[in-house]
Amino acid sequence: MLLRGRVTPKPPARAEGAPANRCILHADMDAFYASVEQRDRPELRDRPVAVGGDGSRGVVAAASYEARQFGVRSAMPSFEAKRLCPELVFLRGDIGKYARESRKIFRIFADFSPSVEGLSLDEAFLDLTGTERLLGPPTQVGADLRARVRRETGLVVSVGVAPVKMVAKVASAAAKPDGLLVLRPEQVQGFLAPLPVRKLWGVGPVSESRLRSCGFETLGDLAQAGPERLQSILGPEGERWSRLALGLDEREVQPNGRALSYSEENTFSADTENWSRLSETLLAHSESVARRLRRDGVRARTVVLKWRDARRARAGARGYPLHTRQCTLLEATDDGRVITQEARRLFRESGPEGPIRLIGVGVSGVEDCGIEQLSLFQPPGRGGKEASRSGREALNRAVDGLNDRFGPGAVVRAGERPADRAGLSLQIKRGEAVETSGSVEED
Which domains, from first to last, does the chain contain? Predict the structure, then answer.
């Protein structure tokens, strides 16, 4: 049921194996950043508004629905947005304010389910399985949640409810703006079948082009092809896409799940191949990633270097080739010095051969900080490697404490400077304080 235009999908038979007893709600705020600004600044209401980096290489982080009527979309380069809508009001944004609003919204979500999985500041999955006797049927729960968010924050949230996560997410997108779409198990396939393949969660422009080149235009085409045929054509991804197209998604809502990776990147305001500048940027990103690891109490075993060439290879915002290199450490680390050393080594040994526009450092292979195995060749407490590492850990703790007390950047490593960014920081990343940065730029 779609509560807005009263459109109800046709109810074909439910696919065998679809989980009929689960109930997943996906809540997604409508044009979150732009809506917060329009709420707080009455003169911007009913006007086209975009939030994000307004430089030549910035991108739109959020666009109001008035702006979307001109074709302005999130992730669009800001210069293109201004071309499409000359009257567009471009705002740099306030990530601290958006984070505070997000916390209010997630407290509301928590009152409707103990199992909430946040995907970003403005969207989340809620597991409503087994709550009907307490909260009422899904349609009522969705309406109550939307009404409470509007009443307590003055903002609008669209909601999709379905038996599985992927379908709930697609349903909330279909309900926008300001709508509620509830799908019963027997309605799922009829809802999905006519949708284009790009609606499948996880299918981007490259995957869409690949699927269409193979003759698959809709999710119904994928569902009818069957997993064996899709696997023979598309490889291992084929079976997964077949199941999702049928509305089969075994993934559970995972509250407070541990991050699988951490990363920092920036797009430069001008292309560069200056090693001194790039080296400083690698240091800044590595230290930021390390601080986030320590804040979450985890370490990482793999260091990843990422860059985007300055030379455009194809049209579009993502037309600049993206490259990655990585290495695995003998010991997991949360030390910015170690991450910096490996990132710089990867850059020197197999990095770019010309100017670049974007550079980033990341880590993966994340594990908890547990009891470590002692070195076989260096007795503990006698200097050498163990003492050096112990000293760096103490230094890192001291620096973290000073920055927590006096603000980010109060104490930094020698040579660490803020990364040159083409756009404004608007993301809250796992393991960082509100004041620290990850940027809204091209990716």
Answer: 1-185 (3.30.70.270), 193-245 (1.10.150.20), 261-406 (3.30.1490.100)
